């Protein structure tokens, strides 16, 4: 009896307009892959075009200080051979990773608290909103006063930038959880702890990832500023001294390193995001 | 024996930006064990409010509600709710959705699996346990939500326009499926709809509500036996009952005799 009923349902599933197709349709996946293939070609094309325009400008223009791709590649090789590129990159990467991880690690629980408890929102939000519009660069003199010019001060500035971008996104994520999900959990017998752990956290995951990616961007953006604080090494430091010695090709090397590392770390986050939020209806 | 649901002179007043809105005005209704009752009425008649009150998601301004003889204090797994927007957790597979409530009841993994599979099969989703909600059609999602509500073994099912978002053909199929499921695992059902046809086809008793303020304007018995068939849907007797409900919904003034005492 149960079987017959099930069959009739499946039959209905096949004929009903909204139920078209007995199995989940695999087509969107394939379509997405095809689209991903064509977009990769566009990426390559626009990259080649950009480099070509830059080269053309450097070669035809009479600006001695405008480095072309060959000069930059030469500088890059020299940096690798002499070790200064790796040294500066390591120093910067360490600061960004430390500041970013600390910022995100504090922002996610803070955002959850703000979304869940009124008192937490009331106490934290004014500070967050206030400091959000103040560029970290403007805080540097004060940071020097309180934390000195050591590594702590630099990481703190990056931490602040990461924290402020991520905490807002997490908070928004918790606030935007569909109340129907919460009600659905409650009528199934869920208490507050279960609702938090099994509904609020997964439902706000997409927002948290957006927050983390914005935080990563702010972390790198703040790096150069943080290395104004008498850093002995770091990509920002390297670019500042290159500026003084008119080594413009070295500045381009620094820009490319920061851009490439930021891009790679963002891709890493994107992989995590895809894995944890692939349940989303649209992407 | 006490009725399954006893709504006793319940009034619900909302505070809105334009002042107080009386959503339900002194409404009383008893629903017996095993009954299939539909609530039908235009928007603003307070039918969803009534369901949310019984579910424990809202509290009455005055009056009281008993479920199985005990006053309602917050939501609980004895009252399963099926929402119009399906409310499946999109990050969980169909099976994990059905297991959600079972896990809260402390069932071990094997028991959860078996119960979930049983109810997925009952609604015809036996092969779709590992599908995510986004991979299911609207009708399949709602069937999964019905399986999830059934699985925790509630004595009462509250359905808030569950087929409202489906197209007409799927909707008719879902009505038959729901009645088939209901006849196998008989529970008391309170079903909300704004579709007169649906209200009459499913119910043993149709409660007609009128808006501003929300009141019960008519209660219509449907003496057709279960299982309901297409022939019944097209019969003169059905048309007659349908006509009375239709007039009650669309011309509430004509049936102004207040028959809200229910029992």
UniProtKB/TrEMBL annotation, chain B:
Residues annotated as domain ABC transporter: 5-236
GO molecular function terms noted in the UniProt entry: ATP binding; ATP hydrolysis activity
Alphabetical keyword list: ATP-binding, Nucleotide-binding, Transport
Pfam families per UniProt: ABC_tran
Protein known as: ABC transporter ATP-binding protein
Species, as recorded: Jiangella ureilytica
Taxonomic classification: Bacteria, Bacillati, Actinomycetota, Actinomycetes, Jiangellales
């Amino acid at each position: 009896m149960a079987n017959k009923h099930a069959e009739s349902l499946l039959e209905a599933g096949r004929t009903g307009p909204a139920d078209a197709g007995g199995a989940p349709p695999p087509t969107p996946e394939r379509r997405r892959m095809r689209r991903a293939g064509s977009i990769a070609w566009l990426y390559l094309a626009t990259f080649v075009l950009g480099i070509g325009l830059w080269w053309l400008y450097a070669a035809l223009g009479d600006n001695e200080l405008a480095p072309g791709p060959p000069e930059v590649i030469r500088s890059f090789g020299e940096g690798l051979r002499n070790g200064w590129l790796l040294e500066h990159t390591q120093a910067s990467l360490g600061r960004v990773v430390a500041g970013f991880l600390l910022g995100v690690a504090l922002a996610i629980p803070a955002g959850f608290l703000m979304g869940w408890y009124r008192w937490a929102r009331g106490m934290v939000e004014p500070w967050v909103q206030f400091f959000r519009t103040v560029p970290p660069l403007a805080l540097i003199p004060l940071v020097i006063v309180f934390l000195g010019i050591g590594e702590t001060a630099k990481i703190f500035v990056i931490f602040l930038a990461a924290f402020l971008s991520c905490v807002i996104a997490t908070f928004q994520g918790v606030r935007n959880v569909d109340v129907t999900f919460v009600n659905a959990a409650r009528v199934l017998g869920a208490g507050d702890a279960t609702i938090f752990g099994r509904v609020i956290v997964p439902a706000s995951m997409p927002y948290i990832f957006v927050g983390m990616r914005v935080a990563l961007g702010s972390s790198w953006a703040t790096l150069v500023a943080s290395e104004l604080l008498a850093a002995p090494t770091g990509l920002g430091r390297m670019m500042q001294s290159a500026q003084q010695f008119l080594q413009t090709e070295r500045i381009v090397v620094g820009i490319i390193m920061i851009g490439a590392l930021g891009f790679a770390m963002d891709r890493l986050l994107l992989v995590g995001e895809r894995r944890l939020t692939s349940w989303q209806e649209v992407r | 024996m006490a009725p399954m649901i006893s709504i006793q002179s319940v009034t619900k007043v909302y505070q809105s930006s334009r002042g107080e809105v009386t959503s339900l005005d002194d409404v009383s209704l008893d629903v017996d064990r095993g009954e299939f009752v539909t609530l039908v009425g235009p928007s603003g008649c307070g039918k969803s409010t009534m369901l949310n009150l019984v579910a424990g998601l809202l509290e009455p301004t005055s009056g009281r509600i008993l479920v199985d003889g005990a006053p309602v204090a917050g939501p609980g797994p004895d009252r399963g709710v099926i929402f119009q927007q399906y409310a499946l957790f999109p990050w969980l597979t169909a099976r994990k959705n059905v297991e959600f409530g079972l896990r809260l009841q402390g069932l071990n993994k094997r028991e959860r699996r078996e119960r979930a599979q049983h109810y997925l099969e009952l609604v015809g989703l036996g092969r779709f346990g590992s599908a995510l909600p986004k991979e299911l059609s609207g009708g399949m999602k709602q069937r999964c939500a019905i399986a999830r509500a059934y699985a925790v073994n509630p004595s009462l099912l509250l359905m808030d326009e569950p087929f409202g978002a489906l197209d007409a053909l799927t909707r008719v199929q879902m009505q038959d499926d729901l009645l088939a499921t209901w006849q196998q695992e008989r529970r008391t059902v309170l079903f909300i709809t704004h579709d007169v046809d649906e209200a009459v086809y499913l119910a043993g008793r149709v409660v007609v509500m009128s808006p501003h303020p929300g009141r019960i304007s008519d209660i219509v018995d449907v003496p057709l036996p279960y299982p309901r068939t297409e022939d019944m849907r097209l019969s003169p007797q059905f048309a007659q009952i349908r006509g009375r409900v239709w007039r009650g919904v669309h011309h509430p003034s004509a049936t102004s005799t207040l028959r809200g005492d229910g029992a």
